[in-house]
Amino acid sequence: MSSNTPTIESLQAELARLHEENHRLQAQVVALRPFQILAERSHEAVLVTTLQGTIAFANHAYRKLYGFSDDEPLTGRDVVSHARHQDSGQFQKFFEQLLSTGYFHGAIEETKIDGTPFTGMASIFVISDEQNQPQQFISFFRDITDQQNNEQRLQIFDQMIENAPDGVAYMSSDRTFLYANSAFRSIIGRGDELLGMNGNDVLDLSQAEDIRGTLASTGKWSGRTNYRHKAGHLVPVAVTAFMLKTLAGESLIGLMVRDITAVVEAEAEHTAMQEQIIQAQQATLRELSTPLIPLAEGIIAMPIVGTIDSNRAMQILEALLEGISTHQAEKAILDLTGVKIMDTQVANALMRAAQAAKLLGADVTLSGISAEVAQTLVHLGVDLGTITTQRDLQQSIAAAFGHDQ
Known about the structure:
Distance between the termini: 184 Å
Shape: rod-shaped
Strand content: 25-35%
């Protein structure tokens, strides 16, 4: 028998070895089955390739991510074939780096099969055999394009808030400051120590209950109030406060604040100017409503037109006495031709004016008393006493000049 002829014992040994190898492979298949199910059902894209980049396995999430249909065969294809934005040389260089490091994790720029670019977060591992020899690459991908866009928007938003001219802040439900931008800190003259402070140390407590009540009932409050500056003085501010909710359901209080010191000062200045204008107008109206006419040396006349109330009667008295004193008048004529209505209070005021004029050495003449006013004076029982009366202003002036008939 030739030495190369297998013996029964050698055949039995080989059969036993093959049986053992088959058993080991079946055990590996059984052990890997849960991982295969996990990979198939994973929301992340899972890809297994050879060291040369040939696809050995791609799950449903991978197909969906890149735009492959479920029935399109991927096994055996070169992964470079659908990565059109990359060339094979770049991929080869990337694979070589992977072999040297054994691991990669980071963002990579990818392209779907329809040409749509996206950013993927990849974790790639080298799979080695029992002899620690590299055999395959296994990759996990997820699309982070929206996440990156959101992060970019948040960064831009943070920069906008931080550079906004108005104050922006938010507090916890117990009114502890959690954030405040530069403008808000500048308004109250505080830095990082503001965070953790209670709002009561900053807000105007006289309005605190009203603000809290409105926030609790409507979720928003707008109005003017005062904040206390670190230096101790109050800063007038326009505030919009509103309720916020975190993803965890925590309640926060948002604040948008504008320093209105310049506005308040301008309003105060405008109010003072308006008051000056009103006073000047009132003074002008008083002069127009109580005109004093010097007729000659020692003789003055005051024609009165319109309704006389208590305030105007007092103005007449003041103007008459001032005119008598200024012009050293000995005779004063009060012409009532334009007065149609008179009550007791006004009549008594005129009598007091005449009496006061007497004290200054001047005789008062009433002229132009209408029939209605005369009836009123009689009905009220007003005693004109020694006051001279004339029918009209012409007769009064003639009498004052000694030309009366």
